[in-house]
């Protein structure tokens, strides 16, 4: 059965069948093969979306879109520029720092690349940076968004693997900071001997003004994480709070909320949410029929029979995920791989929170690798450079992010220390 479903999945994707249709179609074939009434398909699709946790996805998307629409991104960028813009390749460092702050609000790499990226690329090009260089660092820094909490990817993984959303959020803090540090170290090394512009150092009053202008936006992640840690609200309720806070920021920054801007943010959110949810419902059908036919158990037995220890297993899974990241969308990979591989992860006594964060960081690297790297297409469109040139310029950042991936893979304490500190050691 493993061979049949694998061949069917790969074959349909290769010929260009949309991933949602592929998943539902294979589910229908599996149900027919098992002699189960076909109406179970509709029931499982609806059941797959019947989750309070999943409400956080459209709400975090809306929050990020509203932040982009109300000028929050520009204020964050100006603050980061005032702090480190005078360094060599300063705007590249600004790019990373601003993305780190915005990651604590958007939860989406694509929202970061599209919203903040438009400001970052424009500013870097105006100061004389090559377009492909500006686009590459923008795409690379956007990968921090689904790692640093709040994170849409963490919500989705927690739902599929049945783990705590709060622990997943906390697990992303240290890896996200490591990613930012690795990117900035790479920028520093690559800037040696290059004629990148150096901006004048901002004065103390200018820094204070930039800080105060951005302060209402900068405290948003602390409100969200603090509210969840204190038990004031759940992650899903926190996403609703984030939407309300984004609206309030719009009223503060723009002296009122432009309904046209809100309508556009809602439109983008509805489109993205619809695409994600149809894939989730199709994946739930596919995962259900796999479970009914004991495919995850067969895979677990296959892994155990190979005699792999957990370290070798993690290496193999990382390689597989990196390859899948070149071919499939992040959401599709998570929905396809997680329900099948979780039993094997448990059997090898690998912490599911640790594995989830390794998986998310791995898939973020996939956003920078053609032919399907979505972040590359977004920044290519913003910069006017070809995807090929941007992908080539992104290679040093792919290497540095892969180093972070290996570090958190084999040093699980970097992932688990903060969740254990906040919520107590997992039992």
Structure description:
- By secondary structure, the protein is an all-alpha fold.
- It has one domain (about 1-425).
- The chain contains 22 helices and no strands.
- It has helices at about 1-15, 20-35, 40-50, 55-70, 70-85, 90-105, 110-125, 130-140, 150-160, 165-170, 175-190, 205-220, 220-230, 235-255, 260-290, 295-305, 310-325, 330-345, 350-365, 375-385, 385-410, 415-425.
- Helix 6 packs antiparallel against helix 7 (about 110-125).
- The radius of gyration is 22 Å and the shape is globular.
- The two termini are about 35 Å apart.
What's a quick, concise take on this entry?
This protein is mainly α. Helix content is 78%, strand content 0%.
Q: Report the structural category.
A: mainly alpha
State the end-to-end distance. 34 Å
Q: What is the global morphology? A: globular
- Give the tally of structural domains: 1
Order of helices and strands: HHHHHHHHHHHHHHHHHHHHHH
Compute the number of helices.
Answer: 22
User: How many β-strand runs?
Assistant: 0
Main sheet: strands, sense, barrel: none
Return the average pLDDT rounded to an integer. Answer: 85
| Structural Rg | 22 Å
pLDDT under 50 segments (min length 5)?
none
Strand content: under 5%
Helix content: over 70%
